[in-house]
Amino acid sequence: MLSAYEGFRGGAPPLRVRAANDRGVNSGGSFVLYWMIANRRARYNFSLNRATAWARELGRPLVVLEALRVDYPYASERLHRFVIDGMADNQRAFADGPVLYYPYVEPYVGAGRGLLERLSADASVIVTDDYPCFFLPQAVRAAADRVAVRLEVVDSNGLLPLAAVPQAYPAAVHHRRFMQGALRSHLSDWPSPAPDLSSLPGRLKALPLDVTTRWPAATQELLSGSPVALEALPIDHVVRPVGMRGGSRSAEVALGAFVNERLSSYDQRHNHPDDRGTSRLSPYLHFGHIAAHHVFDAVMKHEQWTVGRLGGRPSGAREGWWGVSNPAEAFLDQLVVWRELGFSTCAKRPHDYDRFEGLPEWAQQTLLRHADDPRPFVYDRAAFEAGATHDPLWNAAQREMVRDGWMHNYMRMLWGKKILEWSASPVEALDTMTALMNRWSLDGRDPNSYAGYMWVLGRYDRPWPERPIYGTVRSMSSESAMRKIRVARYLAESRHSGLFDR
Ligand SMILES: Cc1cc2nc3c(=O)[nH]c(=O)nc-3n(C[C@H](O)[C@H](O)[C@H](O)COP(=O)(O)OP(=O)(O)OC[C@H]3O[C@@H](n4cnc5c(N)ncnc54)[C@H](O)[C@@H]3O)c2cc1C
Fold it and tell me: What's the pTM value of the predicted model, to 2 decimals?
């Protein structure tokens, strides 16, 4: 073991790299290992850049292990199908080059145990992805203790490195102001759109036989989307795959379609479910099939933008700072400000980003003061899940999520507010939102999921005039939503979807 590599700075900005353990680099190892757990892609990926830099530095081949467990919370046919589509794309992306790509899908609970440790015995160094929520931080901590060599965690989440953000800002305006002051200096640190793999040491011929025997790679049947292969896995079979294909190739097609066809009207249409004016990139962003950097590049190329157009004094104002068209400004505020606010909240508040106790004091107090207010309707989780409330618009949103694995942003806000209003308590409402969206939505279990659930209960917001049940937390109503947004087609589709018809 050598400590000579402690200061190695290749591949990714130092602010984005941290050591998860104090083991050394084994310069006698047979390969460098990239354990791909969140940035499930071959492009715009700082972890991959870092791993390739290590491979060059040490003169060792690069192995990419993309693994999928069967016992993580909410594992289902829907989520598995999407991730496995991505594995098939990654297999193609690495097929002809020097990188040995190893897709592993656990066939039964616990089957994958020991794989990373076994590989670490032959590895020089391991690089993995930094992801600030769900079970991943805990999984990385546990792995750090078990592996034999240095484990590095690399942050490729957003345009600002998480380590550069000083705090979990209480509202978007504060995060935006900080971002406007800080972003310029990070724009020159960009993950490679297409990493140059040609100069890497030659491809490792094969992993050791004991590895491939005990932990065989995912079969071509599974990777090609066979429903039979999915049915054999011990996962939730009620949550079925949806029409949206996962993977980087589909993500790039979706990005191109959005930028060319819908970006120019985003500011006018993104709030109207009937208009389908948003990017629908959130499932791809969630599983790391596409990078925020990549989306940013495509939008800015379309806008013929240069850094010189960025505004000056950071004011926190929502429009005008980027120096692009109004629709692009509106889109970037979601992609960069709101998205990264959610990520930094999870990173800075690991113990309560998803808990009632993590809400601002005023929100906790007002919700608790109104916890015993009579509710006009009270539904349990099963009624919510079945989309069986008295409110057709609410039911349409729930059905959209069950049917398509996705829900429109305006409808998510209304959906959450009504769960708060129609649940026995605010804590129960938080549990219900988490259980339903994490289970049915492809993009659930994301920092933005928790940002959304907690926004419903007052996080990132300010007190509003006091009302029953909500207290001073902002309320929403279906009646006023129907006046403000276009939902005729949305409601009609829901009626014809045949899901949970009563
Ligand atoms: C109650 C509630 C729950 C939510 N749950 C999730 C979730 O599980 N997963 C998830 O990714 N987002 C969630 N959001 C945020 C937002 O609704 C979705 O990100 C957005 O609807 C995704 O659609 P899109 O990709 O077409 O977005 P676009 O409008 O095209 O925006 C582009 C990207 O910007 C980001 N973004 C957009 N709106 C927001 C927002 N309000 N907050 C944070 N980031 C945003 C997303 O990464 C999105 O993909 C939730 C919001 C609420 C109110």
Answer: 0.97
